[in-house]
Amino acid sequence: MPFTARFPVRRLVVVYLTVLSVLTICQPSMPFELKEIDPRADFDELIACEWDSYENPYQPFFRLFCPVFGTGPNARAEGLKEATKRQLEWHQSDPTSYWQKVTDTETGKIIAGALWKICKTNPFEHPDEHSEAYWYPAGGQREFVNQALEQFDAPRAKMAQRPQLYLNIIFTHPHYRRKGAGDLIMQWGLKKADEMGVEMWLDATVYGIPLYKKYGFRIVHENTLHPKTDKPNDEWKKIEGELKTMTMWQMWRPIGGKFEEGKTIQPVMEPQTPPRIGTGEQRQSWDARYDRLMSGASTE
After folding, report:
1. E strands along 232-285, which residues?
2. Would you say 242 and 61 are in contact if contact means Cβ atoms under 8 Å apart?
3. Cβ-count burial of 182 within 10 angstroms (0-12 exposed, 13-18 middle, 19+ buried)?
4. Cα dist from 132 to 54, 145, 146, 155, whole Å
5. What pLDDT score was predicted for residue 5?
6. Is 157 helix (H, G, I), strand (E, B) or coil?
């Protein structure tokens, strides 16, 4: 007997609507909204959220760009004020800069944010205006940071001299993590990159790698920042001790997210003949090192 004869269509419709209703009820609510920022209205709250995010847990590289000088009761507030003003100036003077925010629609609070660099041409065609860390006082600390920033940009400057969508900054407030804000940001980025027909790049910390891998990014280089000088003064030693070892992973998503093992050519730091295919022992060793870091095991 045909299935529809044993189970009338009307009853099938009722069962379908019941199941759909149950599934809808079970879906977790996510009252978040992703929008481009209004610089005048949003920037103070946005950067305050950025600081709360990168300080919990503390990520040393953040202090390269957002220092706190001194230990007085107003030191952090003064550092936040200066960084907010400077980041707004950078945004307004950079035509590739696109800041967006994620808000909790129930409270109106900014709970996450991202800075994308929408690069329709090679972003390394002209010198970087921020290569001199003028936000640090002249001396050993600035010299240390200058070297760190040069090392930070070096891998992508070598591998990514093409139009691209670069995820410069992404953060979620500690109270709102693992609730979908990062997914909203990444989904927007994938759609934008695919519309432009360009590849995507980012510099990842150990905390962000799982999210990026979820969206098709691949580790192409591991970059440990290690500024050096023959005669470190007290200022150099101080900031070197505070920031410790800083390791970033350069991650890449090919145009359209299409990667074929053994066919797609993956970016490399040094030219090789023939070009290295996007798989092999080097990438596996980076993935293995990341897995050890996440498990708390020694990487030595």
Report:
1. 246-253
2. no
3. buried
4. 22, 8, 6, 18
5. 46
6. helix
Tokens found for residue 277? 């295919």
Helix spans in 30-107 (H): 39-54, 62-65, 75-93
**pLDDT value of residue 17:** 40
Per the structure block, which two tokens stand in for 55? Answer: 């300080």
Structure tokens given for 107:
């409270």
Q: Which residues contact 151 (CB under 8 A, 6 or more apart)?
A: 223, 225, 226, 227
Distance CA 279, CA 263 (A): 9
Under a CB-based contact definition with an 8 Å cutoff, are residues 83 and 49 in contact?
no
The pairing of beta strand 97-104 with beta strand 199-204 = unpaired
Q: Can you list the alpha helix ranges (DSSP code H) found in the chain?
A: 3-6, 9-26, 39-54, 62-65, 75-93, 140-159, 181-196, 209-214, 234-243, 281-295
The amino acid at residue 150 is: E
Is residue 274 reached through a cis peptide bond, with omega within 30 degrees of 0 on the bond before it? yes
* Average pLDDT estimate for 61-73: 95
Cα 195 from chain centre: 20
Quickly tell me which residue has 């109270």 as its tokens: 175
Q: What is the DSSP letter of 115?
A: E
pLDDT at 288: 58
Residues pairing with 118 in the sheet: 165
Q: Are 180 and 104 in contact (CB under 8 A)?
A: no
pTM of the model: 0.82
Q: What is the pLDDT of residues 142-181, one digit of tens each?
A: 999 999 999 999 999 999 999 999 999 999 999 999 999 9
pLDDT of residue 183: 97
Q: What is the pLDDT of residue 16?
A: 41
pLDDT tens-place string over residues 200-218: 999 999 999 999 999 999 9
Helix (H, G, I), strand (E, B) or coil at 123: coil
